[in-house]
Specification:
single chain; six-stranded parallel sheet; five-stranded mixed barrel; 13 helices; 18 strands
Length: about 450
Amino acid sequence: MSRKIIYGGTMKAVAFTTLGCRVNQYDTDAMKGLFIQKDYTVVDFDELADIYVINTCSVTHMGEKKSRQLIRKAKRQNEKAYVVVTGCYAQLDPDTIAAIDGVNLVIGTNNRADIVNLVEQLESTERQINAVRDIMKESNFEEMPLFGNESDKSRAFMKIQEGCNNYCAFCIIPYTRGKLKSRKVNDILEEAKRLVNHGYHEIVLTGIHLGNYGVELPGRPTLADVVKALLTIPELYRIRFGSIESVEVSDELVELIATNPRVCKNLHLPLQAGSDHVLKLMKRHYHLQEYKDLIKKLRSRIPDLSITTDIIAGFPEETDEDFEETMNTVREIGFTHIHAFPYSKREGTPAAAMEQQIPEVVKKTRVALLNSLSAEGFAKFATSRIGKPGEILIEKEEDGYYVGLTDEYIHGKVKIGSKKHEIGSLVTGTIVRVDGDAVIIEFL
């Protein structure tokens, strides 16, 4: 994106960077839209800007360290710029953020709909503004809609739920995002229509605790109700889900995935550990057999379903036997992809106080073993698709191919031929081979 900064004029340039999850990315995209609506120009974070917004993560210590580095980088790039820090780290520890030299505005995980007004207040005061509020007192979903800011994109992430009431032993998120808050179905539908009108043809529904969508709203609408509402939009080609807790996958949702080709055949179901001993230590809300039974039921109803997962390696008190059980569980289930990551100690969570912390070298080894199984799982699933229909929603052109994701959340490539296709178009053919981490689709 080209830089358009007019010093001394009315147009200002704002740059964003985002750490962490898809929910954070949604929040960043929404804040971009708020600035664009007020005639600000968005530039890359590496460019000179009048305002730098750092959307932080606090899931791991590394996320917090990177957040601090980016704050300092912004000030080095333009010492006269306003530096705005928002997100989970800002919510969790606003005093530490405020103490970093050069920070002008601190916003947590709420009150971001007012970010432009808060930035403009900085122009009339020499004081730092701290707009962080007690997230535990917030009970309503903060409406911060997307405006379809990037015309070259075909897929949009839409946050429909915020907060979590589970309090797993390892997780800091309930303390940074607060309690469950869901977006009204009508508000979701209206934003989806606006996104489709801007050229987005796939919407990924995201949230902190997506499977518990609607439990606190009048009438208790469900995630399935959201999907049915979105299916009324003809130009919306695909509906995809972010992470869903396995115990919250309803029969109605399964039926929608099984029977409607516009609902993607891919579910991300966090396992976290394949051992009941570790699941209990983690304070997860299911037993291993329950998870396995769900997978069996899903595959019997949706044979081509792609299942991905998260696994934490090296949770406190995880023995070699526990980890071997996890490895055996992974082999038995056969995930398309595993997001494996080492346990990160978060002060204030029960796991941080456990005595038997696992050495970093052991965590690293376990992550590598899980990544190896992840590669095997992908290869097996992708190979099983050869000879079957393949469809991508085009996201870009690269090295002579149209590139995008298949329905099952696999990278797909279609050779560019004489017929021209636009970004956001659906291209269908037959999967003929696997090429690294992608499948090649041809018209046969």
